[in-house]
C-alpha cells in the first residue's frame, strides 16, 4: 500500500471527527457573524428597515484600504474575512478528499455559505451585507482547499524521502 492510500485511509477514519469539527466551526461562525456584537461599520446604502448593504464589488475593500488611519484595520478587517473561512475550506476539502470535484465544490460551497450569512445579516442584523465579504470569504475557503491539496500532494513524498532524493 502506498503512502497516498495510507493518508486517505487516515482521513476516512477521521471523518466523524472532521464532521464534528465542521459543525463546531459553523456554530462559531454563525455566532460571530450573526449574533455577536457588530465590530464593523455601517457602511453602504440604507435599505428597508435601515439595513446597510454594499453590492459594488471592491467598494468596501478600497475604502478600508485607502481611508484607514493605519495598516492594522485593513489587515484585521479584510484579512479576518479570509481567515474566517479558511477552516471551512480545509474541513470541506478533507471531507471531499476522494472527490475529483472538490476543486470546484469547495469554492462553490464557500460562496453559498457566505451568501447565506450576508443575506441573513441584511435581514436579521444591523450589520452590512457586503459583496466584498463574499469575495474575501470565498478566497479564504479556496486558500484552505489549496492547503489540503498541497499537503495531500507533498505529505507522501516527505514520508518516503522522495523530496530529499529530488533535491540531491
Please outline the helices and strands:
Layout (H helix, E strand, L loop, with lengths): L2 H11 L1 H21 L16 E3 L4 H9 L4 H24 L6 H23 L3 E3 H30 L1 H6 L1
Helix pairs in contact: 2-4, 4-5, 4-6, 5-6
Nutshell version of this structure?
Helices cover 74% and strands 4% of the residues. By secondary structure, it is mostly helical.
Describe the structure.
With 168 residues, the protein is mainly alpha-helical. Helices cover 74% and strands 4% of the residues. It has 7 helices and 2 strands, in the order H-H-E-H-H-H-E-H-H. It has helices at 3-13, 15-35, 59-67, 72-95, 102-124, 131-160, 162-167, and strands spanning 52-54, 128-130. A two-stranded parallel ribbon has the order 1-2. Helix 4 packs across helix 5. It starts with a helix and ends with a helix.
Structural shape: elongated
Order of strands side by side in the largest beta sheet?
1-2
Sheet-strand content, in percent, reads under 5%
Structural class comes to mainly alpha
Radius of gyration: 19 Å
Largest sheet: 2 strands, parallel
Low-confidence stretches: none
Number of H/I helices: 7
Cα separation of the termini: 26 Å
**Average pLDDT number:** 85
Helix content: over 70%
